[in-house]
Amino acid sequence: EEYVKGDGLSLRNLALLLSQLCIFGVCS
Question: For the chain, which residues score pLDDT lower than 70?
Fold first, then answer.
């Protein structure tokens, strides 16, 4: 659980990257 708390920001960044990839994929 500590790992999840410590990577909360990283997970958020990952989600943003994934959403951006999906958007770019649709735009392509």
Answer: 1-7
